[in-house]
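Internal tracking record. Fields below are filled automatically when a chain is submitted to the structure queue. Please do not edit lines marked as system-generated. If the sequence contains nonstandard residues, flag them in the REMARKS field before resubmitting.
Queue: standard
Priority: normal
Entity type: single polypeptide chain
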Amino acid sequence: MTDFTHLDQDGRVRMVDVADKNISKRVAVARGCVTMTGDTLARIMDATVKKGNVLEAARIAGVMAAKKTADLIPMCHPLNLTHVSVDFFSDSDNNTLEIEASASLAGQTGVEMEALTAVSVAALTIYDMCKSYDKAMIISDIHLKSKTGGKSGKFLARRYQK
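SYSTEM-GENERATED OUTPUT FOLLOWS
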């Protein structure tokens, strides 16, 4: 059985060999938050940001980033994702925009990094498109919400367990 580590027998970094792992459906969901002024959130939701539709640009950026995760994160496997989605949830009481990304495939390794990368790049896209209105926006709380599939089975972050 292969030892799933990024270190080889001599302590050198390498990509984990997943050849012996079973193929299974794997799904990961990640979340993050962008906090901003009420005016900035209203512009985003009303689609009145001068640079264009922020949510659609961030959605496309998140999907594209998920597909390029192996190019961005050292030792990530290049994956043939079968699905990626990026959704947004606004909270005008707290001036936040929540981002949730889901990535899935049938494969030998998980898609957690792809979902996390999608959220991160979507958040950065929101910042980039709105920084002329609000340079003090805060990108925070990027985390894995859940995952299914693979040897470790299901994971649901404590904050979502009821």
